[in-house]
User: What shape does this take?
Amino acid sequence: MARRASPFLSFFLVLVLIGLGLAAIYATRPDPPRPLAPPPTPAPVHTRRLERQERPLIARAYGQAAPRRQARPAAELAGPVVWRSPDLEEGARVEAGAELVRIDPEPFRLAREEAAAALAAAEAEAALAERRRQAAVARLEPAREAERLAAREVERTEALLAGGEG
Assistant: This one.
């Protein structure tokens, strides 16, 4: 046999379900809108009468300045520096052809004297070789003459031997 539920209990359960549904709707409702901020007050305005004034023009610029052209000077010859121009500073401006440093000339003078001595020795050797050549040329003609005489002597001796005289 089936037992029937009382209508009072059914009504009570329906009311509990409705109440839970309304509570869920109330709990998930969005926040009420906030009131708008008051309108901003206008900014205060001060007026002045314009007058012409002379003011210096000041311009400020930031950055780096660089020359249009840079040069790195280098010596053509190496050697110890004996004088340095006072104008020779990093970033200084120098004119073209200006003397910036002087290099000690003593090693170059010694090298020039050594080269001159070597040249004189070579010229002396060349002169000696020329004299030896001239002496050899001078000895050449008598040697040719002696060769001709020896050749004639050989011919005469061979002729005598062939003729049976000897």
